[in-house]
Design a protein that fits this description.
The complex is a heterodimer of chains A (254) and B (128).
Chain A: H1 3-26, H2 35-63, H3 68-73, H4 84-87, H5 93-114, H6 122-148, H7 152-170, H8 177-185, H9 192-210, H10 235-248
Chain B: H1 10-13, E1 33-40, E2 47-55, H2 58-69, E3 77-82, H3 114-127
Antiparallel strand pairs in B: 1-2, 1-3
The chains are: A mainly alpha (254), B alpha+beta (128).
Chain lengths: 254, 128
């Protein structure tokens, strides 16, 4: 595997996570619990799709990849490299908020590390997204804190959402040994294991402040497979819906 | 609709108002308040009132205000203030201000200073 192959694997996984998470969160548009939250959550979903687009463009411009739109919408399911966490349907708002909380703190840590990446195109992007991701985590923290203090039922639902989300969220950090060995040696980023440890430290403290118990890592089975192209039953229907308009005329100019 | 205290506002219905009509104690975080939002376009500029948001506390009000009022035009900071913390005159007290228009001697417009300012600007430019 060349360094460019390894970079392409990492960028594809990051971009697919952002695209699918953005699409899932956008499904709340018009259905949010209150108007203000509807607007905020939709706005952040747009940000996520913007992050995906920037990464797909980097794949095209710096690594000889395909056209970003075609790559985003026309691949077969097994060629997507997103984690299972982002594929799961929304269900209740507690699940979506908890996913947003765990996912965006992982993003914050990953992009913070990429600000020092040896792969030059990642540095300005990581710098550019800093403020957006800061808002996403601020929004998530405010909701988690508020809902954990809003009575017994509310607290129980947040704890239960955390228990459901945690093994799924560990899938964000699914190892990809061959590619990672190259990327770590080349100073592109510190590797999934190290990012995961930083993430656990960070969310452990935030959960503790909200009174939530973070499940022990060795007591759960991480939801791996996504990075290798093995997906949940939820991804294919999502891809069909997400790409329906694009596939109706892939040559259309928007 | 003959239910007592039935409201079209779900926030009012969630209060479960007693039929006796007695006062209700609302605990912090139990019900939502409105917060006035003030937008600052650049550092040092005034914060200008731009609207309001509903939120259970000031922290979430600020979080909501960011996307409601600062997702398009330039912004460097926001303030939120609980609407009920704002003290205002009653509308019928507007008569206190009625004669303002006559008191032109209070207008700053009577002072002729532009000439001096321009002169000063010119002299500093000359020195450069």
């Amino acid at each position: 595997m060349t360094k460019n192959d390894a970079l392409a694997r990492m960028l594809t996984a990051m971009a697919d996570d952002a695209l699918i998470q953005g699409h899932r969160n956008s499904e709340w548009t018009g259905l949010g619990p209150i108007m203000e939250e509807d607007i905020a959550f939709s706005s952040m979903a747009q940000d996520k799709i913007g992050h995906a687009w920037a990464l797909y463009r980097m794949l095209q411009e710096d690594l000889g990849g395909q056209d970003p739109d075609a790559f985003a919408f026309l691949r077969n399911e097994k060629d997507y490299k997103c984690c299972h966490f982002v594929e799961h349907p929304n269900g209740e708002y507690d699940f979506s908020l908890m996913r947003h909380f765990l996912f965006d703190h992982a993003e914050a840590i990953r992009y913070q590390q990429l600000r020092n990446s040896s792969f030059a195109p990642l540095r300005p992007l990581a710098e550019k997204l800093k403020g957006e991701i800061k808002y996403h985590t601020l929004h998530a923290n405010a909701w988690i804190t508020q809902l954990c203090r809003a009575g017994e039922e509310s607290y129980a639902r947040m704890q239960s959402a955390l228990n459901t989300c945690f093994p799924l969220a560990l899938g964000i950090f699914e190892p990809d040994e061959a590619a990672e060995a190259i990327l770590v040696a080349e100073g592109v980023y510190p590797g999934e294991k190290q990012l995961k440890e930083m993430w656990v430290d960070r969310i452990y403290n935030l959960c503790a402040a909200a009174g939530l118990n973070l499940p022990a890592e060795d007591g759960v089975t991480p939801a791996y497979g996504g990075r290798k192209g093995y997906h949940t039953e939820y991804l294919q229907p999502l891809l069909e819906e997400m790409g329906a308009v694009f596939r109706s005329d892939p040559q259309a100019i928007w | 609709m003959d239910q007592p205290h039935h409201s079209l506002d779900p926030r009012v219905n969630r209060l479960h108002l007693p039929e006796s009509g007695g006062p209700v104690e609302v605990q912090e975080g139990e019900n939502w308040n409105s917060f006035e939002v003030f937008h600052q376009e650049k550092r040092g500029a005034h914060h200008e009132h731009v609207g309001c948001v509903h939120a259970p506390n000031a922290q979430l009000a600020l979080v909501f205000a960011k996307e409601q009022f600062a997702r398009r035009k330039k912004c460097v900071n926001l303030w939120v203030v609980r609407s009920s913390d704002i003290l205002a005159f009653n509308a019928e007290d507007e008569d206190m201000f009625a004669n303002n228009a006559e008191k032109t001697y209070r207008d700053a417009s009577g002072f002729k200073v532009m000439e001096k300012i321009n002169q000063f600007k010119k002299s500093t430019n000359d020195k450069k």
